[in-house]
Amino acid sequence: MESLIQDTIRKSRVPARLDFFQSATGLILGLFMWAHMCLVASIIIGKDAFYFVAKLMEATFLSPTGEGYPILVSFAAIGIFTLFIIHAALGVRKFPANWRQLKILKQHVIMLNHGDTTLWFIQFITGFIMFFLGSVHLYFMITHPSMIGPYASADRIISEWFWPLYLVLLFSVELHGTIGLYRLCVKWGWFDGKDPRKTRRKLQAFEKILSVVFILLGITALIVFSYIGIEHKDRVGQRYSPHYSAIK
Ligand code: HEM
């Protein structure tokens, strides 16, 4: 009997543990996405800046031949993909199980008209979209790690038609990420302070600002890539040579 009770207690801890792992993987992915967007946005500064970042990721500075180790990009992408899958698998637990549940959920969102419930619904939709589009992007990064550069990336975006995928993914990932980080702060009571309600309002405002900033940054980067890709359309496959010689 005693062991049965202990067993029940042990079982009841599982959802809390799973929740913790979902939060932890979400936190790492959210912070990674901010860093990732800043690195990708180096294209706004110029082709040389993006080339520099791409070569830095390949640790070219460690390579005597100057060719770098693109396999490092694959390893990083495999690591992120693993976290991405774990995070998604843990998230699926909270998805509505059938059409009827989804309808009830939608009715609740409309009826309650409560900010945080609506944010949860946006996270559910964007998470669903990201699972498919993010997987395509990550699989490509794992299998083509050396195909990153001002021309290679721009050619992919324009000539290989990746821009619609990136556009939808950009909105999904930025909304999902910033809402997720906001929900983490609320859930675990970070920054609660003396007046949690006031803090929550502040966090909501901050979350909106961050979403807008990162979406604008991503759109600007996408426009710059597209401009380069259109200009480079008749030379697809040609790789970029930087105007500096320090890191080649
Ligand atoms: C280690 C893993 C990753 C690597 C190496 C990587 C690399 C890149 C690179 C090089 C680009 C520029 C375009 C291109 O070359 O095709 C890009 C763009 C993008 N990536 Fe990633 N990425 C990673 C993970 C992710 C994840 C997990 C997501 C979201 C699920 C994501 C979302 C995006 C989006 C939305 C863009 C378009 C950005 C824009 O210009 O607006 N990436 N990524």
Task: Describe what this molecule looks like in 3D.
- This protein is mainly α and 248 residues long.
- It has one domain (19-235): 3 helical TM bundles of succinate and fumarate reductases.
- Helix content is 76%, strand content 0%.
- The protein is built from 9 helices and no strands.
- It has helices at 2-40, 42-45, 47-57, 71-92, 99-112, 115-143, 150-158, 163-187, 196-231.
- α1 (2-40) crosses α8, α4 (71-92) runs antiparallel to α6 (115-143) and α7 (150-158) packs across α9 (196-231).
- The longest helix is centred in the first third of the chain and has 39 residues, at 2-40.
- The radius of gyration is 21 Å and the shape is globular.
- Protoporphyrin IX containing FE binds next to α1, α4, α6, α7 and α8.
Secondary structure elements and pairings:
Blueprint lengths: L1 H39 L1 H4 L1 H11 L13 H22 L6 H14 L2 H29 L6 H9 L4 H25 L8 H36 L17
The structure holds protoporphyrin IX containing FE.
The site of protoporphyrin IX containing FE has 24 residues, from helix 1, helix 4, helix 6, helix 7 and helix 8.
Number of domains: 1
What is the molecular shape? Answer: globular
Per CATH, the architecture is Up-down Bundle
Bound molecules: protoporphyrin IX containing FE
Q: From the alpha-carbon coordinates, what is the Rg to the nearest angstrom?
A: 21 Å
Quick structural gist:
The chain has 248 residues and is mostly helical.
